[in-house]
Amino acid sequence: MNFALSDEQQMLQKMAGEFVKRESSLKRIRQLREDPTGFSKPLWGKMAELGWLGIAFPESAGGLGQGMVETVVVMEELGRGLMPEPMLSTVLLGGQALLLAGTPEQQKTWLPKVADGKTFLSLGYLEPQSRYEPFDVATQATREGSGWVLSGEKVFVPDAEVCERIVVSARTAGNRRDRDGVELFLVNPKAKGVTLREVPTMDWRKRHMLKLDQVRVDEAERLSGAPADRALEAALDRAALALSAEMMGAMNEAFRMTVEYLKTRVQFGVPIGTFQALKHRASDEYVQTELARSAVYYAAMCIDEKMPEAAAAVSTAKARCNDAFHLVANESIQMHGGIGVTDEHDIGFFFKRARVAEVTLGDSTYHRDRYARLKEY
């Protein structure tokens, strides 16, 4: 397995990095805190023109036919700028669920519009009692005539308010924690019986509680192209890895900002970066970020090569990034001193993003436990 990026991947990395520097300063992130949408639709259109929204989709679905390594390359650069555009919700969660479980007709209807930036999707799979377990599903889907009626509640659905469709998991058979009997449905968030309630979060990104009260869904809206359990698990793995890549980019940017501060902040007549204790702490941050990088790219290659250890590699990468970003965010605040905890300084944005990202799509405890179960420990 060759861990070096190809020439094309390096070009993609450079282009994405330049785009983030040019289009998305942290000043923009400050302004978006008050924006009801939470991101820029014109900027999303520019990302679509560059082809990034179609990286993870095959050419038959309007995409570029590339893989997770290319997705990771782009997500890492977006993470450096803390960009809130809905790559995770639309392309990786809703989009991948539809790609992996949808029929050819469903894919043809929705995925080209996602790749063109014209349609937003999301995925509702978490429930109040489930704590990351994708098959702990109490939401019920009951057959009625030629369609289905859905009732239940989903939590922390990202970007739900702007979506044309939300992929929702619901149980058609079996007990609450069974893998069997879980199906995926395309739900219109504006349909009768659907209620959205925004949930405030530390990083200001939009998440919603989704309540379904006797919501009618046609049979054509059931994703029946592949077994739903395997498709849901695979989509969540791809999304968790993409989020890990975003976290990797953010932690590296926070580390860079901190090192620059250590070089310029003077105390007792010398830059504080010359103090041995701070050198040791910065060195530990660097080691942890590099370990996280190795885990993320290995997991991406495992998915692209369809290796049997891909799921375990994803859990390793997410747990590594959770811990590393947590450390880097904490240390960055500490090393910036009093100014680091003020809203006037940008380093606080990375701290807040770290706190939310590490509990999104599985915290470290969940992924270590999952790794153990996959390895049959």
Share in helix = 40-55%
Detail the poorly predicted runs. none
CA-to-CA gap between the ends?
Answer: 26 Å
Query: What is the assigned CATH homologous superfamily of the largest domain?
Result: Butyryl-CoA Dehydrogenase, subunit A, domain 3
Counting DSSP H or I runs of 4 or more residues, the number of helices is 11
- pLDDT averaged residue by residue: 95
Return the CATH topology of the largest domain: Butyryl-CoA Dehydrogenase, subunit A, domain 3
The value of Rg in angstroms is: 21 Å
Structural overview:
- The protein has 377 residues and is of the alpha+beta class.
- The protein folds into 3 domains: 7-118, Orthogonal Bundle (Butyryl-Coa Dehydrogenase, subunit A, domain 1); 122-225, Butyryl-CoA Dehydrogenase, subunit A, domain 2; 229-374, Butyryl-CoA Dehydrogenase, subunit A, domain 3.
- Helices cover 50% and strands 15% of the residues.
- It is built from 11 helices and 9 strands.
- It has helices at residues 7-23, 26-32, 41-49, 68-80, 87-101, 104-115, 228-264, 276-304, 310-336, 347-357, 364-374, and strands at 121-124, 140-144, 147-158, 165-171, 182-187, 194-198, 207-218, 266-267, 270-271.
- A 4-stranded antiparallel sheet has the order 2-3-7-6, with no helix packed on it.
- The radius of gyration is 21 Å and the shape is globular.
- The two termini are 26 Å apart.
- The mean pLDDT is 95.
